[in-house]
Amino acid sequence: MSGIVIDPDVVNEIAGRILQNRKYRDLELPAETVTDLLRREIRKAKDLKTAEKTVREKLHQIIAPYLGDPDYAEAKKTLADARQNGEASLRSWCLNMLRSHTSSKERIPVLEDFYAQIFERTGTPQSIQDLACAMNPFSFPWMKLPDSTRYFAYDLHSPRIALINAFFEAWGLQGLQQLASVRDILLAVPQEQTDVAFFFKEAHRFEARQKGCCRDFFRQIHTRWLIVTLPAENLTGQHQMRERQRRLIGEAVA
How is residue 132 annotated by DSSP? Predict the structure, then answer.
């Protein structure tokens, strides 16, 4: 236990400094994400400098800039063009968005079969929540679901969420029930009741942020089916992670 007194003003000052870093300022991340990390690390660290350093490292992992992002301003422009040119152009645009992010890019070769196998098990969902969604909502055209599907998507990146909402409107998923929203789902677990929840390649990063958190997080999700995926190897393909990930899930659902 650290002897550092947690001063809310100091925490807010450090959080503000981190959020103004050029890597994060345009993402408009929830301030509570950084303040939560700081409070947890200050309790363990020997001093504030060490706590801040650890928080910056953890935030880098949470945001995962190495996974990729499109140019969001340009993507909005090309979305408007694709919308004018019809469904085929919108699908092509979605593929470009999926290619911009490492995790979603991996699923492209098996997109239709991936969701077909999920929905064969769960039944055709009328409602979905996409947790820490990244670029996955752009897979919707390959889910073969009706436009009446209620699709709730959550992510920390404000520009990404804005683009997802623009796509939902372009595709015809309109109305308040379909809107994606900026949310730190670990701190504010979604309360929507859905048929299916996606949690793709994120549980291991939750555990790195807060060890043991997945068990309570899974308990709090209001869904009939929770679909969790995890990486079988690291991004370079040099380290196998399958057994470690199986243990993580085994402990979370035991």
Answer: T
What's the confidence (pLDDT) of residue 149? 92
- Contact by Cβ (8 Å): 19, 29: yes
User: How far does Cα 121 stand from its chain's mean position?
Assistant: 23
* Residue keyed to tokens 């003003």: 9
Single-letter amino acid code for the residue at 179 = L
Residue for token pair 């993580």: 248
**Which whole-number Å values give the CA distances from 227 to 14, 84, 114, 182, in the listed order?**
36, 34, 12, 21
| pLDDT over threshold 80, residue 240 | no
Calpha distance 219→36 (Å, rounded): 21
Question: CA-CA distance, 66 to 103, in Å (whole number)?
Answer: 11
Is residue 234 packed enough to be buried (19+ CB in 10 Å), middle (13-18) or exposed (0-12)?
A: exposed
Phi/psi for 129 (5° steps) reads: -120, 130
In whole angstroms, what is the distance from residue 143 CA to residue 118 CA? Answer: 10
More confident of the two residues 21 and 167: 167
β partners of residue 155: 182
Say how far apart CA 180 and CA 196 lie, in whole Å: 16
Q: Which amino acid is at 9?
A: D
Instruction: Quote the distance between the C-alpha of residue 67 and its chain's center.
Output: 12
E-strand spans in the chain? 127-130, 150-155, 181-182, 194-200, 223-229
Whole-angstrom distance between the N-terminal and C-terminal Cα of the chain?
29
Q: Specify the DSSP element, H or E, that contains 83.
A: helix 72-85
Give the model confidence (pLDDT) of 117-166 as tens digits: 999 999 999 999 999 999 999 999 999 999 899 999 999 999 999 999 99
